[in-house]
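Re-run with default settings, no changes from the original entry. Doing this only to confirm the output is reproducible before filing.
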Amino acid sequence: MAGIFINYRRVDTEGWAGRLSDGLVRHFGPTRVFRDNDDIRSGERWSDVLSSALAECKVLVVLIGPEWLTCTHADGGRRLDSPDDWVRNEIAAALGRGIPVFPVLVGGTSLPDEAELPEAIRGLCAFQTAEISDRRWNHDLEALIEDLERHVERAPAEDDVAVASSGLLALKALMSEVPAVAQTVGRSRELLESTRRKLARLEAYKILHDALHGIELDCLRPMETGGVGAGLRPFKLELTQQKKIITECLATQSLGPTIGEELLEDLERVQQAVAAAVDQPEPRTFQEAIAELHALISAHPPWLDAGIVALATELEIDRLLELMRTILGQLPQNAHDESLARFTGAIVALERLHVRLHDQVREHTLLQRLDSKLRAACLGGGTGRLGKEWERIRQIRARITPPYSVTLEGLLDDLGAIEAELDTAAAAGEEQVSLDLLKQYFHSVGKVFRGVDTALKTFCGQLGNVATPIEVVLSLI
């Protein structure tokens, strides 16, 4: 569902509408922005598509240019006065629904007086206007986006992944239609293969990580809570299911002989220990099963975590985007409309994924560094140097800047309050108070880091799905 509906008149603001749409799509995602020129395909009944999008949108953006008020029909009548004028009717429908309306002024235009408007849309004058000038376009657009964010969320990563995957698959038709595109793709085999391999490994790491996490949450923790007397057969079945997932993943994705063998060997030991505890339920076999589970969870998730972050850092999405832009420049104007639209959408989606990946990896890296520094300071206890340690911690914290993830943004006020108290205590030389506050801060930062870490792994797992369409393209070379 598109959250933002762009209302405009072609003769008045078509160029501005296209530029605005591009900017909003880059920020919110293609599934969050509707503009008739981009979102109505051949063969669709345009009135039905417009009505549906208008009924579902969360906000209406009304572009008002120099001719918006005075534009006329061939007979000289003002278009806004016509009962079947779509610009007028879209505004009236939004006002009737009671959704936020954003009058956006372009080309040096002012908002008309209420008396100059048809009665059905006079409510437009009740809304605060925004102005976007050509000279300050980027600055003004950022201000508008900030206001729109109060009503419309960015598209989730999976939406961008789906759009990117669909657009990459469209290369199949474009390669057969345009020989130059096929040649460019053929010369880029190494880049495509490297990207596919890293994305596939990223997806595999996420599958393995989730399976081990499932063993910890659904086997180890409830077994420890239930104790020796708890029925262990359900945990044996859960372990068998997760082992099957891990085995199938390792069979389809090479992670190196040592890594796969060690993981499967450790899983086999765990499975045998749990089976023994089921067959001979006594404290000794139960504790052996718990010990094997702890050994498994301690040994493997850490290298999977490190591998996910390392692969996310190594991904060369910028080079893939450069290739796609080169291909776009080779396409003739009469290229297959649907394939071209999908491919163009994929470029925008990948740009957003690239920015999201960069921001999440950067925030994750800095929070991990902050978490490690706090851990060392807290474990060191009161050494008489907490004031100096806090200064160093502050320097690391200062590097964590916007844009923030949702996880971090939700706790910024709490972190800021503790930081202010720590500043005061450290300046006063109150060592014990500083240490107590530092431990609180460590706990809060750790909570944020775990949330950011989970979000990064989830995102990387979604990003790994782009490997499949790249593999299809490679099969055509």
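The mean pLDDT is 89. Strands lie at 4-7, 33-34, 59-64, 101-105, 130-131.
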